[in-house]
# Entry
Amino acid sequence: MKVIDHINQAKETLVSFEVLPPLKGKGIGALYKHLDPLMEFKPAYINVTYHRSEHIFRKRADGNFEKVVIRKRPGTEAICASIMNKYNVDTVPHLICGGFSVQDTEDALLTLSYLGIDNVLVLRGDAAKNETSFEPEKGGHKYAIDLLKQVVNLNHGIYLEEELKGTDGTKFCTGIAGYPEKHFEAPNMEADLHYLKAKVDAGAEYIVTQMFFDNKKFFEFQKHCLAAGIHVPIIPGLKPITSKKQLTVIPRTFHVDLPSDLADEILKASSDEVVEQIGTEWLLTQSKELKKAGVPVLHYYTLGKPHVIANVVKEL
Ligand code: FAD
# Structure
């Protein structure tokens, strides 16, 4: 079932979870172990992230280095199908521009469609580790909107091959990313909202936000979106803080602020166990306020901490 249908049919705020494919070598059992304790909360759907290949330099026996391409977390499409099969729940694979030519994208979309997957979260992806800024694949898309247009075209039976025009299309419901604290490359919020609106006008059916730790930023973002003419559902993305290290890692990686009340409490914590308690309480307070405000879905980035998410969701 499509995410947008879940939202339209729901009588109250839904929950959804986001997981990463297991690291190569771990097996899918590790992912099931992660998801098992969360399934009692009946998520409307589960997102599975996409991780592109990385270039690394490996030292050879002769002392020289060779460039090798490795993918640490492959299998997004197959994992979505396995989760659907095992738990009878809808899944949302993330689809990115990085590393894909338009032909690769069309093939990936057809694979997903044949697997019975109704949703895709359409993203640009970040720069690869060896790039200073995002570089599209040769013959690939530069921005998420270009990828979105390809998905929308395929939904209308418009393939890359002209002669297939008018044949069977796909039926994907498309989500996109939004940034309550602005995407880090955008010169200002107005510019970022302009491109967000363009994605909605191109057919995106809902927005999932980058994580945020201050609900005021989300509520302001909702207002800015409305003022910009964006009327699709906006789903807040939520993540628990569970270690002191995240005080610097989260702002550096995701370009979001931590409110001073939260940062001060974490700084004073005597151990990461205490940080986890603080982070759980914070997430619960955020979740309750967002639910009260009537958000369509609470989307949790579970990232290795299913018990924290379970402790929050069971209190809602
Ligand atoms: P875009 O919409 O393409 O925007 C990128 C930047 O370009 C923005 O600054 C925007 O303002 C600007 N822009 C957009 N269109 C134009 C235009 N036409 N001309 C000029 N400027 C423009 N990354 C992964 O690799 N895998 C994942 O699974 C993944 N999942 C994510 C899930 C969520 C909910 C979120 C919020 C992010 C996720 N990301 C993921 C990270 C995401 O790929 C990055 O944040 C990326 O830098 C931007 O992606 P986007 O889709 O927002 O890009």
